[in-house]
From TrEMBL:
Protein's UniProt name: Uracil-DNA glycosylase
């Protein structure tokens, strides 16, 4: 498991996007899903691990 000093912040990830779906407003292009919660929360809940696809946005 990858240990991070702080939780993954999807908003700073290059794969995060906001969808037009009011029920599932948070999307992850790396994993290919939409969710009501931040994608990193959904990944942690499903796998018990931190997101392994996180990459900081450029700029």
């Amino acid at each position: 498991m990858v240990k991070r000093e702080s939780p993954v912040n999807c908003i700073t990830c290059k794969y995060f996007y906001v969808t037009w779906d009011p029920k599932f407003p948070n999307g992850c292009k790396a994993y290919g899903f939409k969710s009501a919660a931040r994608p990193s929360v959904s990944v942690r809940k499903a796998s018990g691990m931190d997101c392994l696809k996180y990459e900081k946005k450029n700029g």
